[in-house]
Amino acid sequence: MRKIAVLTSGGDAPGMNAAIRAVVRTAIYHGMEVVGILRGYSGLMQEEMMPMTLGSVADIIQRGGTILYTARCEAFKQPEGQARGLEVLRKHGIEGLVVIGGDGSFRGAQALHKLGMPTIGIPGTIDNDIPCCDVTIGFDTAVNTAIEAIDKIRDTATSHDRTYVVEVMGRHAGDIAMYVGLAGGAESVLIPEAPYDLDEVIRKLERGVARGKKHSIIIVAEGAASGIEIGKYLAEHTGFEVRVTVLGHIQRGGAPTARDRVLASQLGAAAVELLRDNVSGKMVGTRNGVVQAVDFDTVFTTPRQPDMRLYDLANILSI
Ligand code: F6P
């Protein structure tokens, strides 16, 4: 394989730059040319691309976001969009593609694979909602960003004897909520994967107050409920002073943690090695710490479940 391309797609995640760097440098190490496609599949269809050199990925390993920009692209879900993508790749002599993103991005990569373009996916999303891998690039950073904010919220919650509801990201997955709930000592954690009972949340708050507890923090994954609605319900049904913070996109930015940089570097390099070995139609991730490739079809059909032991533990420790 003489020439490959790399793109980032879907929501950005800290560590994507480290993955791009690893793809580019590994490919150049092996004597290949690399093209960076801008703005995901949307940029691919519009031929937005630039040659990547050793220098073009210098000084990015520590930066959040993605130097290739990213987009969510409806048109690429259609066969016409995919055919156009293939046409552009062929026109530029590209023989393999690395796609860094989440589930939707992998579906585009799978379509190109089926059309005969070798593709490898790298899981990059803060939500950690991709099955068949230990963790996605960006999750560790997002959790650390959220916990830093929650620690600050706790300071002011303590000073004012207030109950705080903090909404964290996670459209379909409660992983961020579970991790920050456990790491931040939250009183309750609401996630989309488990049913919750707001009256039980209230009983727990009231038990805490009866023991002399003056402040509480409730973590809500956006996929479970709106933090604002939960806050309203709690205020109306308890008479406590409740405040709500929606952390939002702050969780998607910032310098990646060392853990995310290391994972991204491993996976970026492995993706190039797989393309060189004529492997295609797979996601590369770690499982039990070991880098492994899994068919996209397996990724799409494997149900994903967060580690509910952590959820149970968060509940036990916040008794
Ligand atoms: O990347 C995943 C995610 O951050 C979700 O947690 C969130 O629901 C969504 O993206 C937000 O998407 P957008 O940036 O398009 O508003």
TrEMBL record:
Mg(2+) binds at residue 103. ADP binds at residues 21-25, 154, 185-187, 211, 213-215. It is an enzyme of class 2 (transferase). One of its GO terms (biological process) is fructose 6-phosphate metabolic process. It catalyses: beta-D-fructose 6-phosphate + ATP = beta-D-fructose 1,6-bisphosphate + ADP + H(+). Allosterically activated by ADP and other diphosphonucleosides, and allosterically inhibited by phosphoenolpyruvate. Residues 3-275 form the Phosphofructokinase domain. InterPro entries: ATP_PFK, ATP_PFK_prok-type, PFKA_ATP_prok, Phosphofructokinase_CS, Phosphofructokinase_dom, PKF_sf. Keywords: Allosteric enzyme, ATP-binding, Cytoplasm, Glycolysis, Kinase, Magnesium, Metal-binding, Nucleotide-binding, Transferase. One of its GO terms (cellular component) is 6-phosphofructokinase complex. Substrate binds at residues 125-127, 162, 169-171, 222, 243, 249-252. Pathway: Carbohydrate degradation; glycolysis; D-glyceraldehyde 3-phosphate and glycerone phosphate from D-glucose: step 3/4. It is found in: Cytoplasm. GO terms for molecular function: 6-phosphofructokinase activity; AMP binding; ATP binding; fructose-6-phosphate binding; identical protein binding; metal ion binding; monosaccharide binding. It comes from the Bacteria. The active site is at residue 127. Its cofactor is Mg(2+). The keyword Cytoplasm applies. Its main location: cytoplasm. Its EC number is 2.7.1.11. PANTHER family: ATP-DEPENDENT 6-PHOSPHOFRUCTOKINASE (PTHR13697:SF4), PHOSPHOFRUCTOKINASE (PTHR13697). NCBIfam families: PFKA_ATP, PRK03202.1. Belongs to the phosphofructokinase type A (PFKA) family. ATP-dependent PFK group I subfamily. Prokaryotic clade 'B1' sub-subfamily. Catalyzes the phosphorylation of D-fructose 6-phosphate to fructose 1,6-bisphosphate by ATP, the first committing step of glycolysis. This is ATP-dependent 6-phosphofructokinase. It comes from Alicyclobacillus cellulosilyticus.
